[in-house]
Design brief:
The structure holds 2 protein chains of 2 kinds. In chain A, the strands form 2 sheets. An 8-stranded mixed sheet of chain A has the order 4-3-5-2-6-7-1-8, sandwiched between helices. In chain A, strands 9-10 form a two-stranded antiparallel ribbon. Chain A folds into 3 domains: 67 residues; 173 residues, 3-Layer(aba) Sandwich (Rossmann fold), CATH 3.40.50; 45 residues, no CATH class. Chain A is α/β, with parallel strands linked by helices. Chain A is built from 15 helices and 10 strands. By secondary structure, chain B is of the alpha/beta class. Chain B folds into 5 domains: 177 residues, Rossmann fold; 99 residues, no CATH class; 52 residues, no CATH class; 103 residues, Elongation Factor Tu (Ef-tu), domain 3; 149 residues, Sec63 N-terminal domain-like fold, CATH 1.10.3380.30. Chain B is elongated, with a radius of gyration of 44 Å. The chains are: A alpha/beta, B alpha/beta. The interface between A and B is large, with 92 and 88 residues. Strand 9 of chain A pairs parallel with strand 7 of chain B.
């Protein structure tokens, strides 16, 4: 059993209680008592191969020997002298608990990088949440708060298609003119150039088209004019208002425009808010429900359609995983990969050395 | 070790690990452009096949947007397959880069974090080199939402099985912060509702003043304020509950009653000194130690001449007459017994505290005192109710009895005990009520302030209807609207040249404080801007004045004034980035179009504005809607 592989040994070590590891490390790892279990194991694993054999032998001997005798019996005796010995510590957990929940070995860079590639193009099938959003939009307002790049635009396009089929006007707003232009090209390709118009501060292209792209400020101004009595036909047939990047409601300067737009949005038209991940989409949904005639349905999830992994690239060119786990976990805390920790500590140490201090 | 990985090496590593295409986020525009330049220095071209592919994609875009045909970065993009994408570039250039990226022709795009929201293209990998970003002059840590927005560009739907975020250190990085951002929950967002003058005018155009408050209450701001005030209200309910727990007292408002009683007592108590340091026994005796009282000291008897307190002395003092006519001072505590005998003395206000006749009489009486005297029995009230005894100082009670029922009230003991905590609770309750009121009416209050200003300037009538000025002023829906409408009312723009109007509006439109070099401004622009500055200064109390930079205004002015000036020459006249000039002109166009919307009431000014717009729209500005 002495010719154990690295991974086997690592797994075996992680399965041992810390007590045993301390005994194992004694005299071999300096200051082992200041390290956590994980670091002790990493240090032990880094031993040169000839030491390694001895380590394995020691380990096996210790495992067979079983747990060491409890520390000297003198102290309980002294405690007994007192009437009721105070229970300072909770009873020590069973020593084999570590086997039930072994700390998984950290992922490796090879593991992290595996699976890169281009999937074969297949027929697009919408996710359940996308279908849900479109179905809800028939009767309700909808707010979609999902991670970037998980397919919000699909919801917008499908919703537009249905609105056009019902002979309604759709207004699509984005916070930036640059995005408006991109969307103009994108929607023109899908619906045809004559179906899409764009309104900017000073120009109108194809303003009678059923799909109108504009910045949110322009829509707000249209709504002002409609409220002021200057009837605009488009407002009357307006069936759907899509506010893209609606997390802009928190923008210090422009956020008020999004609020006004939502408040003054005609009651007959549905609202579709597309937003990146935000902390309180439920609060916004509650708000919209409270001021509009129909309830606002919230679609909120954090699953990305393409999984995301994190890596660390050292200035020397070494790539290592950023986290111990392969995928990025959400809301459960994190542990930085030991290799990355070492590399970054080295980096900080070197770049804040005297040479870089001014 | 270098402080940061060289961009070329970075892309090389990503290529080797098949992590391209990538978006690399840098702190500054300059870092992005320099990264591109460094590819030229190292000279590591991509295979000719890919160069051709890039050329093929670029061709139709150049045809559509001729302004980028001679862009200095085109050869680099074609040769090395990398590009920079930031606000300093023309929109048409950015469109070209986005298109190239979408077609998968590029290995990397170097972008600034500030534009993360405006970048609409994904990549396989996102490279983050910093954890803070420049926001309004200051470096701020990236928020969790921002980090996730950046990282979210990694992994293209339908083109990748998996996306990557690569963190590479630079002097601006805190790796823990980014790790936290990647795994954490995004921040909740808060309403940023602000009232503006155009908002007030437009709301009052459509609704009467009575309907405004319900409209404001529909805002997300009010929704959040209400939620906050709801938590306060639950707290308030708790306080009310606690107060009712004190139960029924004799009077309805016992807290106030007791408080005024306490105050009255405190105000009068200096007349009835409460002696703090005496024992109960001495205290009990004090009221008997009046002038003429015979007392026993430890050895002999004496007659009290006066009782007094002197500053700095904790104990009540006595001046007594001892045998052989000695007049001595003693602390009241040294009296061992009070004798049931008082000698008549005629008091005077100075030593020896009684007139000569009564002093003689007293000396004589002292000599004649029998050895055995009858001590006066004095009831000592026990210490436990020491406070009680002081409170119920008979004299005090008597004087306050007429005004307050408290001293004789059966619930006075309970009141005394509960008063302090109850008062604290009630004050807390009042504070909460006030806070809740402010939260509920804050928006409305701010709206009213704006109404007052607009009334003052004559855009609104006293009963909140739009005046003729207000009717047109509501069409100006941009920042610094008050300044612009005031300028129009002052006829500052009468007979103005289109170029000058453009310059003035440009200086109002752009709040950029970056220094740089700019073309010379005309003397006309200088004098008009001087006027505008005076007006802006006078409006300071109602509206933040814009920067009104004449140098930036000159860029817009020269573009309109010199119709033969090509874009390429304009960008060489100033140190402003191409994208910034474009944005300046585009915004000025927007402002001009707002002025043009006044064509019904100000036909001549609208004419100038539309002229200026026509003059502005050429070359690059003609390309995009």
């Amino acid at each position: 059993m002495t010719n154990m592989t690295h991974d086997e040994l690592s797994r075996l070590l992680y399965a041992q209680p810390i007590r045993l590891l301390h005994r194992l490390a004694k005299g071999q790892v300096p200051r082992f008592f200041r390290m956590g279990k994980h670091r002790i194991i990493q240090t032990l694993l880094d031993f040169p191969p000839n030491h390694r054999a001895r380590l394995v032998a020691d380990l096996e001997a210790m495992i067979q020997e079983g747990p060491p005798p409890k520390p000297s019996a003198k102290r309980p005796a002294r405690l007994k002298a007192q009437e009721a010995p105070p229970k300072a510590k909770a009873p020590t957990p069973p020593t084999h608990r570590a086997i039930d929940h072994p700390l998984e070995p950290a992922t490796s860079i090879e593991e992290l990088l595996e699976g890169i590639g281009v999937p074969i193009a297949k027929i697009f099938k919408p996710d359940p949440w996308q279908e849900e959003a479109i179905a809800q939009l028939a009767t309700n307002d909808v707010i979609v708060s999902v991670p970037t790049g998980s397919g919000k635009t699909y919801v917008a396009i499908e919703a537009m298609r249905r609105a056009i089929e019902a002979d309604q006007t759709v207004i699509y707003t984005s916070p930036l003119k640059a995005l408006s232009n991109t969307k103009l090209t994108e929607f023109s390709q899908i619906f045809g150039a004559d179906q899409v118009g764009i309104l900017t501060g000073d120009r109108r292209y194809n303003p009678q088209a059923p799909i109108l792209i504009m910045t949110t400020e322009i829509l707000r101004n249209l709504l002002y004019d409609a409220a002021g009595g200057e009837i605009d036909l488009r407002i009357d047939t307006l069936g759907l208002v899509i506010l893209d990047e609606s997390q802009f409601i928190a923008d210090p300067e422009r956020g008020v425009v999004w609020e006004e737009t939502i408040i003054f949005c005609p009651s007959q038209s549905r609202l579709l808010l597309l937003s990146a991940s935000i902390g309180n989409p439920d609060e916004i949904a509650d708000w919209i429900t409270s001021i509009r005639t129909v309830p606002c349905h919230l679609i909120h999830h954090r699953n990305r359609s393409v999984p995301l992994r994190a890596a660390y690239l050292d200035p020397s060119g070494t790539l290592s995983p950023l986290f111990r786990t392969k995928d990025i976990t959400h809301g459960k805390g994190f542990t930085v990969h030991p290799e990355t920790k070492r590399l970054f500590t080295d980096y900080e140490h070197q770049t804040t050395g005297p040479r870089y201090r001014r | 070790m270098p402080p940061a990985i060289h961009p070329v090496d970075l892309i090389q590593v990503l290529r080797n690990k098949q992590l391209t295409p990538a978006i690399v986020f840098f702190t500054s525009r300059r870092a992005c452009d320099e990264a591109i330049d460094s590819f030229e220095h190292r000279h590591v071209p991509i295979p000719p096949k890919r160069m051709a592919a890039i050329k093929k994609v670029l061709e139709p875009i150049i045809k559509e947007y001729p302004s980028i045909a001679h862009h200095p970065f085109i050869p680099i993009v074609e040769q090395y397959g990398v590009a920079a994408h930031h606000a300093g570039h023309l929109p048409s250039w950015k469109i070209a880069i986005e298109e190239l990226m979408r077609k998968g022709c590029l290995d990397a795009v170097f972008a600034t974090t500030t534009l993360a929201a405006g970048v609409d293209f994904p990549a396989r990998t996102v490279v983050i080199t910093q954890s803070s970003v420049r926001k309004a002059k200051d470096f701020m840590e990236l928020t969790v939402s921002e980090i996730q927005q950046l990282a979210g560009r990694g992994g293209r739907r339908g083109k990748d099985f998996v996306g990557f975020v690569v963190i590479t250190p630079s002097p601006y990085i805190d790796i823990g912060h980014i790790a936290k951002g990647l795994t954490g929950n995004p921040e909740p967002i808060d309403s940023q509702f602000v009232t503006s003058y155009p908002m007030v005018l437009n709301l009052l155009k459509a609704h009467t003043i009575d309907h405004i408050q319900p409209i404001l209450e529909k805002s997300f701001a009010q929704f959040q304020l209400n939620q906050r005030s709801n938590t306060f209200e639950t707290k308030l309910d708790g306080i009310d509950q606690e107060l009712t727990n004190y139960g029924q007292r004799e009077c309805a408002d016992w807290i106030t009653q007791w408080q005024s009683f306490e105050l009255a007592k405190r105000r009068r108590s200096h007349r009835f000194v409460k002696i703090p340091h005496e024992t109960a026994e001495v205290n009990a005796r004090l009221s008997f130690l009046t002038p003429g009282r015979v007392v026993a000291l430890s050895r002999e008897k004496a007659i009290v001449l006066r009782q007094y307190r002197s500053r700095g002395q904790a104990h009540a003092m006595l001046t007594v007459l001892r045998s052989r006519g000695r007049i001595v001072e003693y602390p009241a505590g040294s009296v061992t017994e009070v004798v049931d005998q008082v000698i008549d003395l005629v008091e005077i206000k100075s030593f020896p505290w009684c007139n000569a006749a009564s002093l003689d009489h007293a000396i004589q009486m002292l000599e004649e005192l029998p050895t055995r005297v009858r001590p006066l029995p004095i009831r000592v009230v026990e210490d436990s109710s020491e406070e009680d005894s002081a409170e119920e100082n008979s004299v005090l009670t008597e004087t306050l009895n007429d005004e307050f029922p408290c001293p004789a009230c059966p619930s006075r003991h309970a009141c005394r005990k509960d008063h302090a905590p109850a008062l604290r609770l009630r004050q807390e309750g009042h504070r909460l009520t006030k806070t809740i009121h402010t939260l509920r009416t804050e928006l409305w209050h701010r709206f009213q302030q704006h109404i007052e200003v607009l009334q003052k300037f004559g855009y609104l009538t006293p009963n909140c209807q739009l005046t003729s000025d207000g009717e047109w002023a509501r069409h100006i829906r941009i920042n610094h609207s008050l300044l612009i409408t005031e300028l129009i009312r002052m006829e500052a723009f009468d007979g103005i040249e289109p170029a000058l109007l453009t310059g003035v509006l440009a200086s109002i439109a752009i709040d950029d404080d970056r220094p740089g070099s700019y073309p010379r401004r005309s003397s006309g622009l200088g004098s008009v801007l001087k006027q505008v500055r005076t007006v802006a200064h006078s409006l300071e109390a109602y509206e933040d004045p814009p920067l009104l930079r004449s140098d930036i205004a000159a860029v817009a002015e020269v573009w309109v004034a010199d119709q033969n000036l090509p874009w390429s020459k304009l960008i060489r006249m100033t140190s402003m980035a191409e994208g910034d000039i474009y944005r300046l002109l585009a915004r000025t166009l927007e402002y001009l179009s707002q002025v043009y919307s006044l064509k019904a009431t100000h036909p001549s000014l609208a004419e100038v504005a539309v002229n200026a717009m026509d003059l502005m729209r050429r070359d690059v500005l003609e390309e995009l809607p």
